[in-house]
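Posting this for the archive.
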Amino acid sequence: MRPRMCYDDAAWEKSEEISEAWIAQFSDLDILRELGRFLVRHHEPDKPDSFDFLRKRSSAIIRLPQPGAIMFPEEKVRNEIAVMRYILDQTSIPAPFVIDWGTKKDSPLELGPFIIMEFMDHHTNMYDVLNMPGRSRAYRGILDPNFDEDELQRLYGELAHILLQLSQHSLLHIGSLSQVDDFTWEVAHRPLSMPMNELIRLGSLPQACLPSLDTTFDTASSYFESLAELHIAHLMNQRNDAVDSADDCRRKFVARYLFRKLAREQKLTERWASFENGPFKLWCDDFRPGNVLLNKDSKIAAVVDWEFTYAAPIEFSYAPPW
């Protein structure tokens, strides 16, 4: 009996097929040239010969959501743009400057919604620095047991400083940011999270089960109840690999309904009851060492990949980082 519910292997295989087919098209030089010309036109129109897709360093890069991996590409891009601009304006966290962005219809060959952003010069990332030397990328990383403790404390201290900055900004609702004007942001959309994306991609969950696009939450307990409903819907909708036996199914069914009961009775938020109605804090589902870029002195050069960032209950920020 597995302690957690596994994802649908058939759905996983299908999503990987879609991703691999999309990536394969970039072996076509004509597509790469069109992508390069588009980047130059939007970033350096006075330098028509400055693009070289083989170079590792550049002044700007273009990012496109990968079909099969990202289930809400337009929403993902819109959210990431708002968050990156908010972080650059409201914190000292080093993040890429957004030069331009657009929808799938605006992109070269309609490859997908895009972001053109500043290239952040770096030497490596924190994941590779901390990982056990020689460990294959096919396996999850393991902290190098011989890593210098003083250096580890310094790096973790820098990560803690970033988390602290994110937790210092108060927002009125739970949800994703929207930019109102150059200096104003508001929480106006559903809190699109990485688990939500994965439930659709790998858990066979119909998109209609998610909160609607303009849904935000005013209380922590209402958000937890919404998450409980998603877990129940996941168990009911996943086609393969959800349960091992009748007993396993009953156990998972009961666990999900108990979780919803606790959420409805506000038992999950008792410890932080004074924050039931906010303020809420910025939380990034994908904040991890692999997205922290380091320079040659092993200092943080940039933090990237902010797409699954939203205003969340204060418990998310105040719990120990994974």
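The two ends are 25 Å apart (CA to CA). The chain has a mean pLDDT of 92.
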